Amino acid sequence: MIGKRASRVEFVSCDVAYDIPTKLENVVVIPIDVRRKMSHCETTRYFGEGYQRKQNGYCRIYDKRLELFRNKGIYLENDLSRIEVVYKPDEKIELKDIERHSPKQNKQYFAAVIMDWQALEKKEVERVINLRDGKDMYTQYIRRAIKKPLANQYRVDFDELAGAVWKQLIDEPCSMVLGVA
Question: I want to staple 64 with a disulfide (CB 3.0 to 4.6 A). Which of 80, 129, 162, 167 is the partner?
Fold first, then answer.
């Protein structure tokens, strides 16, 4: 009930998670900014340095099924991968107004799920794997060429997905903090 005691409560940041029912190796995330470097820790892929964990656009891609089993002993029969992107708006937004400001993460990342690897040419498969695993981030020109065949796979539209459920996701926590029923 912070909202009843404070004159203003601002939204700072949150992680937005996108669960994808497929193996991690089928998930390809490409940063729009070529300066955003990839790192790894076990099977998790990161875009951004450790000190950037709370900055807008920091991204983690990992095997959610494996994480649930390791950390909570929960076994899922089906594959599950997760993309998490930090949402931290540049401008100050009051918590009571945050529902009108859903994350816009397509400007930071292009993501696709490879549904059919055979639909890609051998050279495209090699480039996608190198890019997915951070072995080669390529030039903007080659990255655009890689994105073209990926558009025929399943494109993850972060803006559409977040926008469709944003109000539902934030209503309860915002109400609890602001003390509104």
Answer: 80
